[in-house]
Write a structure and sequence with these properties.
Blueprint: H1 3-21, H2 27-50, H3 54-80, H4 94-118, H5 120-127, H6 136-144, H7 153-205, H8 215-220, H9 237-288
Helix pairs in contact: 1-2, 2-3, 7-9
InterPro entries: MIT_dom_sf (IPR036181)
Coiled coil: 246-280
Biased composition (Low complexity): 168-181
């Protein structure tokens, strides 16, 4: 065999030994792993001697270190799995035997009940069985027959009806609360609209440098309809979002109106200063002439 073939064979053996050694479930497997570790360590020494590349040698040395650490773990596990000294048996009287037998029977019944508790959901959904573990009747039935009671279909139907009624009542209460909130917010909308209209009328009547508002500027202001009824407001989430959008537009328009007033004042002051400068210029020129 060539060196490469020997090396590959040794590495395959090493992987097989590790796969066995990593399973610490049984003591027999641990004993086999301990013997396999010794063989894998010997094989690694041969592979290190045959290998010429230094990098691959370092890899093999690291693997050898892991084998040493695994062997220590195996020894610890084997010590734990050693059999302990057997306990001395005590003599039992006839009376104690009867009591113990009754206790064992009770324990068996409790185990069955615990299994039923764990599998209660499966029994209810799949098998169609209802289990009341705490009741004494079921315990007695399990002792006699080993079976449980079945669910009454009428009881299930009545429970479902009660749930649907409760859901409908909750939805009606929510709709009424939303309608009351919309009624309370309606007068605020009308006040904001009146303020906008008064501002537009006063602005159009004045004679400023910028002139009256154009149609383009007037279109920026939102004008809600006067036939708006709060009682007709629906309570869906979509209409609530539209209501919030309207209030935001009104706030923005009010801010824009304030900004336009400030610009008008600035422009009027600038024009007044320009007129004074022109008058001074002409008076000075006429005086020299």
């Amino acid at each position: 065999m060539d060196r490469t073939q020997q090396k590959n064979y040794l590495l395959r053996q090493y992987e097989f030994y590790l796969s066995q050694a990593m399973s610490f479930e049984q003591s027999k497997a641990l004993l086999k792993a301990k013997s396999n570790y010794i063989l894998s360590a010997e094989n690694l020494l041969l592979a290190i001697q045959l290998e010429q590349n230094e990098q691959q040698r370092m890899v093999l040395k690291k693997k050898a270190k892991t084998i040493v650490s695994h062997t220590e773990i195996v020894n610890q596990k084997l010590e734990k799995l050693k059999p302990k000294e057997p306990l001395k048996k005590k003599k039992i009287s006839v009376e104690n035997n009867e009591e113990n037998q009754n206790k064992q029977k009770e324990k068996k019944i409790e185990r069955k009940l615990s299994l039923i508790r764990n599998n209660a959901f499966v029994n209810q959904m799949v098998l169609g069985k209802n289990i009341d573990v705490c009741s004494r009747n079921n315990k007695e039935n399990i002792k006699k027959t080993g079976k449980t009671k079945k669910i009454n279909k009428q009881e299930q139907i009545n429970r479902n009806k009660k749930r649907t009624k409760n859901k409908q009542q909750q939805q009606q209460q929510q709709q009424q609360q939303q309608q009351q909130q919309n009624k309370a917010q309606y007068p605020q909308m009308t006040q904001n609209y009146e303020q906008q209209q008064n501002f537009l009328n006063n602005y159009n009547n004045t004679n400023n440098i910028m002139g009256p508002l154009s149609l383009q500027n007037q279109s920026q202001f939102y004008q809600p309809s006067l036939d708006w009824n709060p009682n007709l407001l629906p309570t869906t989430n979509q209409n609530q979002s539209q209501f919030q959008f309207r209030s935001q537009l009104q706030q923005q328009n009010f801010k824009q109106s304030q900004q336009q007033q400030q610009l008008q004042q600035q422009n009027s002051q600038q024009q007044f200063q320009m007129n004074n400068q022109n008058q001074q210029f002409w008076t000075n020129n006429n005086f020299h002439n």
